[in-house]
Specification:
The structure is a homohexamer. By secondary structure, chain A is α/β, with parallel strands linked by helices. The first copy, chain A, is built from 11 helices and 8 strands. Chains A, B, C, D, E, F: This is AroM family protein. Chains A, B, C, D, E, F: InterPro entries: Asp/Glu/hydantoin_racemase, Hydantoin_racemase-like, Iso_Racemase_Enz_sf.
Chain lengths: 231, 231, 231, 231, 231, 231
């Protein structure tokens, strides 16, 4: 049976969990590692405050200790508990925000972040600081939408496109979606902004595949080892 | 038929091209985009100098203009011609070094690079500068091995492990393989160093999949759009 | 009755709590705010891991909500839960590491940190990143001493002096004691190193006094308001 | 008799000197070190130009050589002569601007400065550069008020509140008062801006107390030395 | 015969080449090195794209190999091929943009750049990154003028003065002319902006003279060697 | 009569003044601006301390006010009084250290400084900070030679070559001579180190010529104004 990448949504929302799974679906491939998306049943309805952010670290660690997997993804775009979870397992652990920022840096030199709320910003700043790329943030625009609008399949699109364009006007050459649940709008945002838009679930999924494939490559890698090396 | 990711080795070496293809093989999945690895027949035997680095930009552009693909990877770990090629197509274009550095930043806050030769260093510094993460480079260690050793399936392993350990001693918490053709040694290097080792072909491959999946996700993304959004 | 500065040791150790109180004693003044040092009875014996670091945030918040005070100090030299506690009260909340680093920056342009263990380093790096002064860290030297040596009134002194001198050799022009309980050795370390040594309990205490005095000054501040202002 | 902290106003203004003393009064405590505020009788009426800034260094050094004290504060918010005065005595010497910036960094990650005049800015930039935190300056707003307004007990308050709010709008999460004589308005500014406001005389006073208490702690510090140490 | 500084315009434009020569004329002195300005006959009409930028590197190298000179200047304000040309000769090779930025840094701490087109910006950013001074760029303003206006002796002046003033309003304390051909307007821009304006041909010319004079000084430098040395 | 560039040695040493003049001689050209090198008769024998550094600012200003010139150079490699002197005249004022650092940045991305004494280092750090290039300093090596050795025409050469090589080993790709009086050894140091060596008197001289020529160019600049502009 194929390897499992355990994607843990640190909040308790079922619809949020389903949205993450939907975003990851296109990355799964038959025969390859499979993404299993779970939630912290005891988590808060959303990671909306610093207290939430700190508090989910321990349950995340405990779930990782309970649930063996080939790799783990913390499925919240402020990377809560990342350092702690990494101590709880020798397997790769990825944070969605760091992965999305990294992906943005492969496509452009300046990027903007579309946040959930203005209050998300200081938590997301921590990831920028940890990666050393705070000065590459061209702008930050919170959606500040009520949940019923945000989760509607079409309602938030116009707002998302507007803030994407606003970030480009501020110098962003790529855009990071700073919350989950917006995968269905990523293409529309990209079309509106004219720059790459990075969806964080998919960014983390791709990095988890990379972390596993890097090792899988070894098994049949004789050809690679015989190859010419340059720069 | 599935989408094609065109991976262009800017040098003319057939064995190098084969090595890149071998490194990418584990990332391919049935039904997903396929990696097609080609070489610049008119390229130099290796990108070993700044002149090589500048000179391959135009042939890369011309190949991209000739060959339609869903995404492109410049398969050399100093990202030659990247900005020019991006002007030659509206499709995503990825550089292996930027992708490998980005991947390292998702796993650690400081990384080291194992280079081909000491002379590769200033070219690779350009990518660090472009990404704004020069201060995150904990160390740089060139392999400085003769080609016949480097391309041997087992000969370079001890040297690779030694420099990986040296980088960890300098503070590296992840390691970027700074040349292609070493995929077969990545696991051994990781085991020796005790930190994640990033293989650049695979890093770029994963990022190319992400760039395409981000758009593919749209098509079946109704569930995603209906999902709860948080941070 | 005078204002209370509540100094909360997030670990459960009584001797650690006593050490913090002893370090703060010289800063208290009759008529001024008083330092009250308490511990988290439910805290871990020490903040020795990332899990400890994340886990104490919520009990810290709850204690702050329960215990009214004029200002709060989180009495651990990795500033656990700082952002969360700041959301739990409108009163000033100070972290010992940020205060000690700030104090070092008033005395010198490069500083070193003497840590408890090598594993403390990544947590302490977060504070440097949050303050934007990571490049001003000239060196980091962990004590790596067994607890029975560390808490002995004289045993750790020689080691402390040696690492202080080592940091100066690495370019440190001031030294931050990166764990509590070393106040009794600060002068000896300063004499050995020949540069200012910052004790974190006292640094946070001084900053808490400042946060309160800034407001107290208002009451009798007519003279100040009448004074000449320049640069 | 208690230790003396000599606070030297490098300008010759008596009212400015009185304002500094008034600002420091709330920090003094019976039995603790006492603040003695003096002026450079030969100094200029204000440190208003680079020439003033350079020129007061030597008289400051000479006063320090003449007047023994436990610690010294240069009482001007552009830290003139700081490095020179530090060579003139082995005792701690503190600059008000560095102390105020450091205090701001203990309360927030971005701060603004309210300057005396636009022309003060390049001098104050030197302190930011020396501390390595230039990128943490969210904004700079000069008061640009005539002296008779500035020294009026109530006249400058509205302007001060307005610029404090303007700095918050620019991203400041704490505010440094960049000239002396405004202590009487600090609370009003804080209330208007909703973020911590740092008064520089008091910031330097607190740091001077810390510098002395760090050593005083040694004498009765047996309990501290016996305490448990963590992180 | 005097030494020759070969100034190579990488584009094929005769009028552009003449403009460079005119800008350099005031730096030449009888008996000193002479500037000889040539063009790449096979170059593009202007370096207007990344492809142009990459493509001229090899012809520049070949010309340098063919044409012996005491020093070389690449006469385009995006420094194309600089690293490659430096490998093609042991003699000093200077890029106009780096020289102009360096000159600006000798006059001020923040500078602005007046670019040819908005699309010139990412290429010019590479030089800022290579020099490590990206954060010192106060603003970037493209002229975006049609060529017939740009090359008119008086037509572009008003626009140039306007953007120079705009850069000062953004914090620029010096201005770099980011394209050749504007030497005739430098004084007018300086007068309009009230800050130093750096003309890139002249900046590179001065640096080339320095590179040669440094060695010439040796010959008659006995007095220098006997002189007193301080700081 | 030609324009005068007044080069002011802020120390009182006649031999030092002569050494500066000797270093500048090769830059002078018949018909061009002339360098006139003077000393501060009331200055200290050398700028060897922070007090010296501060104290010469005012006499420098006064000399500049007394002596009309087309441009001024402060002839000491720690740029004392630079900001003050710039307020004393509308004419260009250049500091030797900033000019030498700028020149180094046109030749390489990392540089080392050869200092007079270890105690010169913090003063020279100020210029690096002001220019924003502190992280580009690969190493700092003081000569620490007695004056009679330093001023001997041949005695210091071996030491200079040794420290130049040491800086290259530390990553320097160019070297700044951090004191005057070494012009006679610049070529020998360059030959020993294999990287460009920048002599500060000449660097400042070249920048002063540039500052003047930029304006001179205007007069005969019709051709320039008619020229084609590109990037």
């Amino acid at each position: 049976m194929s390897e499992r990448i355990l994607v843990i949504n640190p909040n308790s929302s079922l619809s949020c969990t389903a949205g993450i799974a939907a975003a990851l679906a296109p990355l799964a491939a038959s025969g390859g590692p499979r993404f299993e998306v779970v939630r912290l049943a005891e988590g808060p309805p959303a990671i909306a405050t610093w207290r939430d952010w700190y508090q989910v670290a321990e349950p995340l660690c405990q779930m990782v200790e309970r649930e063996a997997a080939a790799a783990y993804v913390i499925a919240c775009v402020s990377d809560p508990g990342l350092e702690a979870v990494r101590m709880a397992t020798p397997r790769p652990v990825l944070g969605m925000l760091r992965c999305a920022i990294a992906a943005a840096l492969t496509r452009a030199e300046r990027f903007g972040i579309i946040g959930f709320m203005e209050t998300s910003r200081p938590r997301q700043r921590r990831a920028l600081q940890a990666m050393g790329v705070e000065t590459r943030l061209a702008g930050y625009e919170p959606l500040n939408l009520p949940m019923e609008v945000l989760t509607d399949p079409s309602a938030p699109r116009a707002r998302l496109q507007a803030v994407a364009r606003a970030l480009v006007a501020q110098g962003a050459e790529a855009i990071v979606l700073g919350c989950t649940g917006l995968a269905g709008h990523a293409r529309a945002a990209e079309d509106a902004a004219g720059v790459p838009v990075i969806e964080p679930c998919q960014a983390a999924g791709a990095m988890a595949l990379l972390a596993l494939r890097g090792r899988a490559a070894e098994d049949g890698g004789a050809a690679a080892a015989r190859s010419f090396a340059a720069e």
